[in-house]
Amino acid sequence: MQTDERIMAYGGGWLDRAGALRADPGWVAARLADRASVVLPLWRDRCLVGPDQTPLRRGVADAAALLAAADETVFLGLDADSAVFAVDLSARAEPEARELAGAAEAVDVRALVGGLGPAEAAVQAYARGLLHWHRGQRYCGGCGAATVAGDGGHTRSCTGSGCGRLLFPRIEPAIIVLVEAPGEPERCLLARHRGAPEDSWSTLAGFVEVGESLEDAVRREMAEEVGVTVVDLAYQGSQAWPFPAGLMVGFRATAASTDVRVDGEELVAARWFTRDELRDRVARGRPLGRVDSIDRHLLGSWLTQRR
């Protein structure tokens, strides 16, 4: 089990989320009027960027049009003495949103992450996830009445008479697992998903279901997807994955046997790889997972036997 913390992509954000302060509407309004505050504009889950592909940050003093046009404005946190807000321009056509922000284009943060510092990527992903949640919670799921934002954008409240349900941003946990073979030779199990390229292999993952612990989900998913019983589960780390609301929780586990039976639905193939085979794939330009995903960490750690 790993003993030191490793920051995954979209983790390590520098903002103080100021949970006790953002519940005060007057405090939030004062920060939004403070010339030291900054605004991050987004459009339909995409960062609005300048010609250099850097996500835009606008001072409040220059953001009156942005704030007036925004579907939602949310408080993200404090960067030292400066408040950081995100605004959603999704109701506008893309050209209008770009013009309002002074942006060159709208780009998914996942396409930018390689050129951003870890903390900047974390804040952009945080803004994306929170604004996405707001767009999907305009109405109460209990009574159908409209909802309104509160706590600087970290809650929504139902306006229905006799309801008043309080809604919080949802997180959808998923497990992602590097399964090792029992005994020699040392191998790990990778799978090819339906629709993936012919030579594309990845670690195994799945969502946690109601009433399950993380460990229960690991055992169930491995049994369902590849017909493998696993033991010796070891936590490896977690990763924010707000696309739109995930939290990836990484494990290693050992298979009870090397027999594999893919489900034929999500997965079309699975096979065991030695370390030399994975190193050969890297040498041939085949990546070990997405550059921004925890599966790259799981595979890289296994190659170096780092826990």
Short description:
The chain is an alpha+beta fold and 307 residues long. It has helices spanning 25-33, 64-69, 94-101, 109-112, 118-135, 214-226, 275-283, 294-304, and strands at residues 38-43, 46-49, 58-59, 72-79, 82-88, 105-107, 147-150, 155-158, 166-167, 172-180, 187-193, 204-207, 230-241, 246-255, 267-274.
Question: How would you explain this protein's 3D organization?
Answer:
With 307 residues, this protein is α+β, with helices and mostly antiparallel strands. It has three domains: 135 residues, no CATH class; 34 residues; 133 residues, Nucleoside Triphosphate Pyrophosphohydrolase (Alpha-Beta Complex). The chain has eight helices and 15 strands. The strands form three sheets. Strands 1, 2, 3, 4, 5 and 6 form a six-stranded mixed sheet that branches. Strands 10, 11, 12, 13, 14 and 15 form a six-stranded mixed sheet that branches. Strands 7-8-9 form a three-stranded antiparallel sheet, with no helix packed on it. Strand 4 and strand 5 form a beta hairpin. The longest helix is centred in the middle third of the chain and has 18 residues. It is globular, with a radius of gyration of 22 Å.
